[in-house]
Design brief:
The structure is a single chain. 32% of the residues are buried. The protein has two domains: 105 residues; 172 residues, Fic-like fold, CATH 1.10.3290.10. By secondary structure, it is an alpha+beta fold. It contains twelve helices and nine strands. α3 packs antiparallel against α4 and α5 crosses α6. The strands form three sheets. Strands 1-2-3-5-4 form a five-stranded antiparallel sheet.
């Protein structure tokens, strides 16, 4: 199966698919992200006709690939390679054009971009044995795999107390005790796994990259115990963030509702996994990449 990627610009999806050793990006998605047009396909048709009239061969470089839409169906969609995106954007009159190019060109050079590439391959790593799932050691391995070479503390339990948004996570002097208690929590039923996930997020064992690591950790527990995983594309970003904030004050009702509604038995579906990573990183795209 081809690799699938979903990136986000200004909260707009930009789908991509790996074909013939290249990433191909949906032209319609790029047009929508830059212009906010309510009819991006029509807009692209107009641009395409103008390119033809001008003798610009960019339109002829497009190939049609089937990409899944919001209705769950796959449709043939005009796609361009990364090398041709810059020329495309230059032919779209919009104040967002330069901002988009800056985001598109440099996103893979950031810590998020590099760690996301590693996260894509985690599912094929066989790094964690079945008996390790749900342990602190397993979570450390996930964190070390994703952020190794990017943070010097990758995989290491923090020794400093941290806070965010007025909430202080487990104080450093009590963190190891808290983690040992969380590790003993059962992980057989949905509620048990969700409770363990919430408690681990309250503990926040790493200096950075906690949520991205614990979402993978959560999925491993669901896969092993329930033979299910989370289709993260079904969980709205703001709903998730608000629910996680509530869960930090012992009210986990909303996060459980969101997780339960997004469960799927497609645990071997590569697209579900890839989309899960994309959405997981999308949740962290705040004003200053503020996830801890």
């Amino acid at each position: 199966m081809s690799k699938i990627s979903i990136r986000f610009f200004n909260d707009k999806e930009v789908r991509a698919v790996w074909e013939n050793h290249k990433w191909w990006f949906s032209v319609v998605d790029i047009v929508s992200a830059i212009t906010n047009s309510p009819r991006p396909r029509v807009y692209w048709g107009t641009v395409k006709n103008r390119l033809k009239a001008q003798g610009n061969q960019l339109y002829s470089k497009c190939i049609q690939l089937k990409l899944k839409s919001n209705d769950g169906k796959s449709y043939a969609t005009d796609c361009l390679t990364q090398d041709d995106i810059s020329e495309l954007v230059k032919n779209i009159p919009s104040k967002n054009a330069l901002k988009f190019l800056d985001w598109f060109t440099y996103s893979d050079n950031t810590i998020d971009g590099q760690s996301k590439k590693k996260a894509y391959t985690f599912g094929e790593s066989n790094l964690i044995g079945n008996t390790e799932i749900g342990s602190v050691k397993a979570l450390q391995k996930i964190h070390a795999y994703i952020f190794g070479g990017l943070y010097d503390f990758a995989g290491q339990i923090r020794t400093l107390t941290i806070s965010k948004g007025g909430f202080t996570f487990a104080p450093a002097q009590f963190l190891h005790l808290a983690l040992s208690q969380i590790e003993l929590m059962p992980e057989t039923t949905f509620d048990e796994i969700a409770d363990k996930y919430v408690e681990m997020n309250v503990a926040h064992p790493f200096m950075e990259g906690n949520w991205r690591s614990t979402r993978i950790w959560l999925d491993l527990m669901f896969r092993r115990s329930l033979k299910k995983c989370i289709d993260w594309s079904k969980i709205n970003k703001n709903d998730y963030l608000n629910a996680m904030i509530k869960s930090h004050t012992t009210d986990s009702t909303e996060i459980k509702r969101l997780l339960s509604g997004a469960l799927t038995n497609k645990i071997n579906d590569r697209e579900i996994f890839m989309k899960g990573i994309d959405y997981s990183y999308y949740y962290e795209q705040e004003d200053n990449n503020g996830e801890i």
